[in-house]
Amino acid sequence: MRFCIGKCAEVKHTGVYSYPYIIADIYPSRYLLKHRGNQYIYNNYNPDLTMNTVEPLRFYDSILPYAKCTGSNYDIGFTHGKVGAKQIRHCMKTYKNLYKIDGGIEWPDAIAKTQLFVPVLKEKCPDLYEELQGVADGSGFSLEDVVALNCRSEICLTTHTDGCTSVSQINPDNGDLFIAQNWDWVGEIVDGLMILDIEKEGKPRMIMVAEAGIIGKYGFNSSGLGLVMNAIMSTASDFSHLPIHLAIRKCLECETFEEAYSSLQDNGVASCVNLMIADKSGKFGTIECSPVGFVPIQPVDGQSFHTNHLFGETKFVKDFPQDNSIFRLNRVKELSVSAPATANSIRERLSDTKNAPYSICGFLKPGTGIGTFVTVDTIIVNVNTGVGELSIGKPCDNPTRYKLFFE
Predict the structure, then answer these.
(1) Is the dihedral of CA 311, 183, 270, 215 positive or negative?
(2) Which residue spans adopt a coiled-coil conformation according to this UniProt entry (predicted)?
(3) Half-sphere exposure of 263 (CA within 13 A, CB side)
(4) Tens-binned pLDDT, residue by residue, of the chain (407 aa)
(5) What predicted TM-score, i.e. pTM, was given to this entire model?
(6) CA Rg, the chain, in Å?
(7) Which residues belong to CATH 3.60.60.10 in the chain?
(8) Is 243 exposed, middle or buried (0-12, 13-18, 19+ CB in 10 A)?
(9) CATH no. of 158-405
(10) Coil, strand, or helix at residue 20?
(11) Rounded to an integer, what distance in angstroms lies between the CA atom of residue 122 and that of residue 127?
């Protein structure tokens, strides 16, 4: 159920009423609750009289909170923080536990470490630093807490990695270009997810599937650029570069692959990650990023793939690959031979269960902490049309798909 209070940031399709009201979405019905005296009275209503008909399975009708963020940098962050306060609290709790279990790092130590990034944040992205302040104020956490959350990769992924599998593929006949990933992480993080829909002056509108409180994550924008990511375990780090999630956000504010790549080179990346990027001109590929340098990997036969280890021709840093990452890379390549460039085909490949629980469609692993990672969600975007789909949970379970799009 999603409640939208009149004139609040979450209401996208309401008409104007002269009295307080609440829109209640209880799928498949929608109710209008009108204020009368000291109570609300509900009734079914004709949506054509008050709002555009909401088609089933749109992304803002998913189980995830949805925040439409506009205005100043601070306002964008404040809306994010206000709408996602509960989910941010869950993410804070989750990462406090993970830092301690997997790295022996207490939260105050994490804050102290990540405060070393503040000078570069103020220098290279003061606008995003203002947004982080808005997230903090909107959610009721301190700015130091929010900075530490946004630097979670610089803490978690120096000793552990996740299990993401990424694919991009172009259809040479019609220009459709798909970019997709299974995001594998600790299962409990699902209660900390939200959808961010950000409109910032002078930048493309963007839709991200985010861990609440983190302002950069995989998604796509209205200029036709899409981005997904793969964690890489390495001890390499540099506090003079942008943390991974801030670097990702800067990329999503770009209009082309080349512009995004230039942003990475200009701002640097503080730790290791692979970013798969595509734009509607048909340019796509994957970039292995480290604090020392970048290794672009060109598509082969109209497809790109990546998992959680470095395999580019040049290795600037040492990584620590796990066998399941190598298996998943080889497996997705095998499944992709002669596979059509369609969302359904890509979803089928991302649903593969061979070698479970360490399969492309990841199952819960034994143990505790990060090592238990499971497929949390799947995103598939056609950057040529600006339409994608999101599902929560393992794709092999055939979960509900929600349409991602710009109106």
Answers:
(1) positive
(2) none
(3) 21
(4) 333 433 333 333 333 323 344 444 433 333 444 444 444 333 333 333 222 233 457 887 788 999 999 999 999 999 999 999 999 999 999 999 988 887 789 999 999 999 999 999 999 999 999 999 999 999 999 999 999 999 999 987 665 566 799 999 999 999 999 999 999 999 999 999 999 999 999 999 999 999 999 999 999 999 999 999 999 999 999 999 999 999 999 999 999 999 999 999 999 999 999 999 999 999 999 999 999 999 999 999 999 999 999 999 998 999 998 899 999 999 999 999 999 999 999 999 999 999 999 999 999 988 767 778 899 999 999 999 999 999 999 999 999 999 999 97
(5) 0.86
(6) 21
(7) 158-405
(8) buried
(9) 3.60.60.10
(10) coil
(11) 8
On whether the CB atoms of residues 129 and 84 are closer than 8 A, the answer is no
Backbone dihedral region for residue 263 (phi beyond 0: left; psi -120 to 50: alpha; all else: beta): alpha
Tell me how far apart the alpha carbons of residues 63 and 160 are, in angstroms, rounded to a whole number: 29
CB-based contacts of 315: which residues, under 8 Å, 6+ apart? Answer: 295
Separation CA 391–CA 399 (nearest Å): 6
- Whether CATH 1.20.58 fits 68-155: no
Nearest to 315 by CA among 289, 354, 283, 343: 289
- Distance, in Å, from the CA atom of 363 to the CA atom of 374, rounded to the nearest integer, reads 5
Domain with CATH 1.10.10 in the chain: 68-155
For 304-353, give the DSSP string.
Answer: EEE-SS--SS--SS-----HHHHHHHHHHHHHHTT--SSHHHHHHHHT--
H or E element that contains 96: helix 85-103
d(CA 383, CA 162): 25
Contacting residues for 52 by C-beta, under 8 A, at least 6 apart: 13
